[in-house]
Amino acid sequence: MNKILICLEAGNTNYYEDLINVSNKISEKNEIWAISFDEKIDIKNSNIDKLIKIKCSQADKYNNKVIAEYIKEIHCNENFDYVLFSATVLGRMIAPRVAMALDTGLCADVTEIEKNGEDIVMVRPAFEGKLFASIVCDKKPVMMSIRPLMFKNEKNINSKKITKIYEDSITPTDSVVIQDRYKKPKTKDIRSSDILISGGSGIKDQFAKLYTLADNLDGNVSASRWLVDRGYVKRDIQVGQSGKIVSPKLYIALGIHGTSQHVVGLKNVQHLISVNKNKNAPICFISDVVVEGDAVTFIDMLNQRIEKNM
Question: Which of this chain's residues are annotated to bind FAD (predicted)?
Answer without folding.
Answer: 224-225, 238-242, 255-262, 276
